Each structure stands twice: as structure tokens, then as C-alpha cells.
Amino acid sequence: MKKILLVGKPNCGKSLLFNQLTGLRQKVANYPGVTVEIKSGAMGEYEVIDFPGTYSLSTMSIDEQVAVEQLTLRVNDDETELVVCVLDATRLERSLVFALQAQLLASKANKPIVYVLNFIDEVKRFGHDIDIDGLANELGAPVYALSARSLDGIAEFKNALLNAEYKNFNPLVPKIPLETTKEVVDFSRALAKTYAINKDVVLKNQNKVDNFLLNSLFGSFAFLAIMFVLFQSIFTWASPLMDGVETIIAGMAVFITQFTGQGVVTDFLNDAIFGGVGSFLVFVPQIMVLTFIIGLLEDSGYLARAALICHKPLSYFGLSGRSFIPYLSGHACAIPAIMAARTIESPRKRLITMMTIPLMSCSARLPVYALLVSVFIPSDVYWLGIFNLQGVTFFGLYMFGIVTALIISALLSRSSITDHEKSEMPFIIELPSYRLPHWKPLYHRVINSGVQFIKRAAPIIFMVAVGIWVLGYFPLNASLEESWLGSIGHFVEPIFAPLGLDWRYGIAILMSFLAREVFVGALGTLYGMEGADENIAGLAQNIMNDGLPLGTGIGLLLFYVVALQCVATVATLKAETGNSKLSWGLYAAYGVLAYILAFLANALI
Fold first, then answer.
1. Which domains does the chain have, with CATH numbers?
2. pLDDT for 38-56, tens place per residue?
3. Which uninterrupted H or E stretch holds 403?
4. N or C, fewer C-beta in 10 Å, the chain?
5. Which long-range contacts (CB under 8 A, 24 or more apart) does 573-580 make?
């Protein structure tokens, strides 16, 4: 299949253009050892490959280096038909530096290149008109003006690619060979001076917003307010969706089990499938809401500002402003967040960030939080008469994890553990233009987050639920406490008794060391086997009826905030740091700290 390579600098609208060209016919992969997504999708007879954005072929990070190496290989591949380079029409000079380097790379491989001048709608809004033909002649390659957001020029561009119209382009001006970086930069400036929109016009409105959002006082309050709304929304916005999923699961259980009659099959379906796996599926909407909010912040351009705001306070704790993005990503999943820490300029700060990312409350903790919060915090109580107390509790749990991470970061930065990583580099970050997020890529991201979470967690939870059911169901006609599972639970019960937890919770906690979300599925199976058939998906109500003390519940929440209960995260830490002792040491240290906090909460509350 012929391939078209889609390249450009970050924040040039390349991914949105890719979505418009390929629609739903996409697949996502990662180059080994890097965090960036590599997307490919079909467009007619072509396969379009979306490369990660880079500012230059002269790389500064590991991710950029691998991406440029892969780009070089693909450009020289016989199957590659064309290179499409996306330019930001509002920041032409910055885009042209990488574009001219990409053009040189393509010409050496004897591959054609075309340019896409994106955000042309914004240029028109500012009352500017770019001489497309003149720019194309100067560059020696076709230039197509379009807007991936408003769809202006998209159909014409897609048709031009499918019909290979770029082959008919004959520039009037001979192409100037640019071999050195200085030549590229000088030519970029010359072209921008002639064709680009006035930077002052572009930055005028952006600076007005930045004067508020980046203000040391108002910007800090705005940041805290945005973060508060983020965590509040995880619970309040997702509640109707969660109720809907719970109703669907309960309805499916009643409908299916009416055909199986009484016996082993019905018990298995009720206890293991609808009680165990079903209890976990109820919380998937919260992962999708979290992804949606983070996507809004990222696509709007605010995340880069948040990193800038956080740089100074984070530096007090031995971190970098760039640590903010891995930290925020860690609220989705610690694994890509740890890998994303490679973009941090300082090796020492990078190591500290990776070591503390597991304290961010990832999406796997969401089912646990949602279950326990709904048990112990009333849903009809509002703080200050405005904010739902359950959402406030969620915010408190997330903030507790963040504060704990900052305290440990400060201790690590002053310890000998990171002494060998003390080389420093300056903090540099580009502030993208403020833009309204586009629904299509955001929609794909949200749906994909739910699908990927289910794919990753459901098989584990299914196996655990089936295993617990088998151990708890046999020997036949024995009670749950007298079953094989009950014997195991009573054996480990002394470990968890100081936390106020009985053998059932001990089993659920041990099982969740595979993955945190297993706790809900395991507990759902256990309570289902105790006769909760009439309330299959209502695990929270079953726990309420059990009378778990408030101190024990708070302790269990704190345990799950701190404990590193994810084998995959430990493996990622080992791969990134190259230190097995460090990774398992963190696993043990966070486990001990979590146990102490749960013990104190149970004893004092």
C-alpha cells in the first residue's frame, strides 16, 4: 500500500488534519521506547502515517530522536509516495524551520513534498491574505491553504492527494539548496517577513488572556479553580452515566438468568460475571469524563500555561514545570505518564518525577474511590451549598496524592538517591495559541480511553472474578466462610485486622496488587456470593448494609491513594530507570506508608 507521511511541528493542527483525512479508519501504535502515539489510517489507496510533532531534525529528547530516526527510514522506504508537511499559518517562521529540513530530507530520498498551510481561517479573521502561489514558488513545492477545524479547503486538498495533482507543479523560482541550520533559519525568517501575518496581531488577543492566566495571583487562583472543576466533574458529570450502566447491567442479569434456571450456571453469571465484572464496568464513564476534561485543557492550549505556572512552585520540590504534564497524565495512567517524563530537561528532575508519578490517582483508582465515596459520603450534601460533597471528597483524595508526591519529591531531591543525576538544563516551553477544541479528535480520544481501559482491565478482572467464584463456591453446599476462599481469607485476616477490615477485604486487597481496579470486581464477586442477587450491580449498597465504620473506610481510601498496586507500573519504572532495586523498593515503601496511614485513620477517626 502506498504511504503518505504527515509531518510538522507540535501544535500545528496536524492530528486534526489526519482525523479529517482518514475519519474512523485509524490505528494507533507506539515506537518501542517512546511515549508518542504513531497513528496510521486509510485514505483511498493510500495509508496516511501521522508522525509526532518535532521542532527540528536536530533533536533534544529521546522521543524526538527516535521519531526523527523513524521518519528518515520511512522517507527512504520504497512504499512512501509523498511527504505532507503541515505549517501553522499563524506562526509561519517556526513551522518553516522544520519544514525546510524535512524538504531537504525528502529531496535526498527523491520523494516529493507538499505543504499544508493550516489555520487559514484564523489568518482571514485577522484580515490578512497570504500569497499562496508566491510562497509555493519560493519553497519549490505545492502549498495548499486550508483549515482542518472549519473544513475550508479540506475536500480540495484530499482530492489533490488522491489524484496526485502535486506531480504537475513546476516552480517558477529555482529551489535554493539549504544544507546548514543557519541557512534554514535565515531563509525561514526571510519567507516569514514576506508572507507571514504580523506576529503582534496574532499575539494581541493571546496576551490579553495570558496577562490574566499567567498572573502570579489571579493565574494561581484560576489554576486551582480549573483543577477543582476537573476533579469535581469526574464524579458529578459521570453519575448519570454510571447509573445508566448500572441499570443496564442489572437488566441484563435479570433477562439472561431467567433462561438458565437455578443452578451452577446462574450462580456463576450472577456472582462472577454480573457481580464481579459488572461492578467494574459501572465506573468506566468516569475514566471517559476524566479524559474529556484533560483533552479540553490540552487542545485549548491551557496545559502548556499550567506547566509554566507550576514551574516555580514545583522547583521548590526539586521538580520542573514539565513535571506537571506527566503528573496530570498520571491521573489517566501511570505507565504513559512515567514514559512521558522523558521530556523533562533535567535527568535528576526526570528521575524524581518518575518515582513520584505512582502517587497520582490514576483511572484504575477511580472505581475504588467512587465505590467507597458513595458508601461513606452522602450524595445529597453540598459544601457551601454549591459543590457536591462527594465531588469535594474526590478533589481531596486527588490533592492528597499530589501533596504526598510533592513532599516525597522534596525529600528525594535532598537525598543521596538522586545525587548521580544532578545535571541541569534550562526550562523551555512553547505556549500554543488559544483555540477551541475540535469535537472529532476529542471524541476519538474519549471513546478510546474507555475501550482501552476495558481491554486492559477486563481480562484480569474476569480471571480474578472466576478464580474467586470457584474458590468460594466449593466445596458444594458449604457457606462462603467455610469455602476454600474463606480458608485463605481467614489465613490473611490478621494482616488486615488492625485496619478494621475482615477477610473479604483482605482477599480483595491482595487480588488488587495485580491491578487496583480488581478490588471492585473481587469485592463484587464476594458480596454477590453472599446473596446479593437482587442488587447485583449495587455493590455500594451492599457495603452500606454491612456497616463498615467511617474510620476504616477513610483508611481504605488513603491506602489506595498511596499504595503502588500495579505490577505494570513497577515494570515500567524498572524499564525506564534500569534499576530493579529502585522499582521494587518504591513498591515496598509506598505499601508500608499506605498501611500506616490506613492504620492511623482507623484508630483515630
1. 2-197 (3.40.50.300)
2. 778 889 889 999 888 888 8
3. helix 389-413
4. N
5. 573/338, 573/354, 573/355, 573/358, 576/338, 576/339, 576/341, 576/342, 576/354, 577/351, 577/354
